[in-house]
Design a protein that fits this description.
Largest sheet: none
Strand content: under 5%
Number of strands: 0
Distance between the termini: 28 Å
Length: 168
């Protein structure tokens, strides 16, 4: 595969011409179930969006990054907090619970030199901020964005388009 020049403009059209949900209608049910599972109010929706924004950044996907940035803006989050997600470790804008959630998504998505991505130490730190229901909800939130990462990377929906109409 030939590498694209860094100066080549990226086209504003999806790679896949048809909406995956039209091709596999069951996707809507899976998506709705994941959204319902993460919306049980055991953790703030903002925390979920922060985690999912960080996931989009980690995998280098503009669609997911723009999508979750938009969700955070609609929720009234400050530009400082949104912008600082990529450098959360040294940013003063996040609570301990949010930091734990961001550390967890990074551990899940990034290889570890030690082999184990989520260490017992990290699990213990995250557990200090979340009870068991909240922790499994956070786990589902990471799984939810991970479910959509292949679609975002392979089908390449157009960034900035409506979540319900990225192929429009």
């Amino acid at each position: 595969m030939e590498a694209r020049s860094i100066t080549t403009e990226v086209p504003m059209r999806p790679r896949m011409s048809q909406d995956p949900q039209e091709l596999v209608p069951e996707l809507a049910e899976v998506s709705a179930a994941l959204f319902k599972a993460t919306g049980n109010r055991s953790i703030p929706r903002t925390t979920i969006s922060l985690v999912q924004l960080r996931a989009g950044q980690l995998v280098g996907n503009t669609y997911l990054t723009v999508l979750h940035t938009g969700f955070l803006r609609k929720a009234g989050e400050s530009e400082e907090r949104i912008t600082a997600v990529s450098s959360w470790q040294d940013a003063p804008y996040f609570t301990g619970a949010e930091r734990a959630a961001l550390a967890l998504v990074e551990a899940v998505l990034q290889p570890s030199a030690d082999g184990e991505r989520v260490s017992d130490e990290l699990y213990a730190q995250v557990s200090e901020h979340y009870d068991e229901k909240a922790l499994i909800t956070l786990t589902f939130a990471i799984g939810q964005v991970n479910f959509f990462i292949p679609i975002a990377l392979i089908a390449k929906p157009v960034p900035g388009r409506s979540f319900t109409d990225p192929w429009g």
